[in-house]
């Protein structure tokens, strides 16, 4: 099996949108645009007319902001966390709403010529893109603060650890990608199979558990992203 064959592997059937040189998963783009639209509408409605005493959707948006700010402050530190709140917040909210959309919305009712709609995080390309963005973010954080001396970390505390330190940076995005993809895919498959085999009400406890684990996966991804950025920013002596 050559590299081109490996690169073309995919999980399940997909609705491909093709250009001359690129083929993308149309069903994933559709649901991703829907999620981004929901987040944008909630943000505009919640923050369009800010009040000193929040009410309605402003309560939701302010709670989300404080929650994300706490994650960033805990993982990155008091002094440098503020500039990373938008990045970590975007990652967290996109994954959270995507996961819950897969658990709550009957995507499969909408038929496509090929493939089926589902949570964007049910596509390994989405989780790989999120993991890659996280990798770029922590490299940018470290290099922008320390310059070329950032790469000294690869030979600390001893030069012979260089291969291990390099391998660690390659495994970080892989672990983020496959952890999120595997958990969301497994959850949707289990609930889907049970809905086919047993009456409607039986899978409800599992669906509730799926909502909980979906939220935990979003929290884990955002927390690890913050931890990796914080690690690249901290001073090594």
Automatic annotation (TrEMBL):
Keyword terms of this UniProt record: ATP synthesis, CF(0), Chloroplast, Hydrogen ion transport, Ion transport, Membrane, Plastid, Thylakoid, Transmembrane, Transmembrane helix, Transport
Gene Ontology molecular function terms on file: proton-transporting ATP synthase activity, rotational mechanism
TM helices/strands, residue ranges: 30-50, 84-104, 124-143, 180-202, 208-229
Self-association state and partner proteins as the record states: F-type ATPases have 2 components, CF(1) - the catalytic core - and CF(0) - the membrane proton channel. CF(1) has five subunits: alpha(3), beta(3), gamma(1), delta(1), epsilon(1). CF(0) has four main subunits: a, b, b' and c.
CDD domains from the UniProt entry: ATP-synt_Fo_a_6 (cd00310)
Any matching Pfam family: ATP-synt_A
CC per GO annotation: chloroplast thylakoid membrane; plasma membrane; proton-transporting ATP synthase complex
Coiled-coil parts of chain: none
Annotated membrane topology: Multi-pass membrane protein
UniProt similarity note: Belongs to the ATPase A chain family.
Function: Key component of the proton channel; it plays a direct role in the translocation of protons across the membrane.
HAMAP family in the record: ATP_synth_a_bact
Signal peptide: none
The keyword Signal appears for this protein: no
Subcellular localization: Membrane; Plastid, Chloroplast thylakoid membrane
Cross-referenced InterPro entries: ATP_syn_F0_a_bact/chloroplast, ATP_synth_F0_asu, F0_ATP_A_sf
NCBIfam families for this protein: ATP_synt_6_or_A (TIGR01131)
Protein name (Swiss-Prot/TrEMBL): ATP synthase subunit a, chloroplastic
């Amino acid at each position: 099996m050559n590299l081109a064959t490996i690169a073309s592997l995919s999980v399940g059937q997909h609705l491909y949108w093709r250009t001359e040189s690129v083929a993308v998963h149309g069903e994933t783009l559709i649901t991703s645009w829907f999620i981004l639209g929901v987040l944008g509408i909630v943000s505009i409605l919640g923050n369009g007319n800010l009040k000193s005493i929040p009410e309605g959707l402003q309560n939701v948006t302010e709670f989300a902001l404080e929650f994300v700010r706490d994650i960033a402050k805990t993982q990155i530190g008091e002094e440098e966390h503020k500039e990373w709140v938008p990045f970590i917040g975007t990652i967290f909210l996109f994954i959270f709403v995507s996961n819950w959309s897969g658990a709550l919305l009957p995507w499969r009712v909408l038929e496509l010529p090929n493939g089926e709609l589902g949570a964007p995080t049910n596509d390994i390309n989405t989780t790989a893109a999120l993991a890659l963005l996280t990798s770029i973010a922590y490299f940018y954080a470290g290099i922008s603060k320390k310059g070329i001396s950032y790469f000294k970390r690869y030979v600390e505390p001893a030069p012979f650890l260089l291969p291990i330190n390099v391998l660690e940076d390659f495994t970080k995005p892989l672990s983020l990608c496959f952890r999120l993809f595997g958990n969301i895919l497994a959850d949707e498959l289990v609930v889907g199979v049970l809905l086919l085999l047993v009456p409607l009400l039986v899978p409800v406890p599992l669906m509730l558990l799926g909502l909980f684990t979906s939220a935990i996966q979003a929290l884990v991804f955002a927390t690890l992203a913050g931890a990796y950025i914080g690690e690249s920013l901290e001073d090594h002596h």
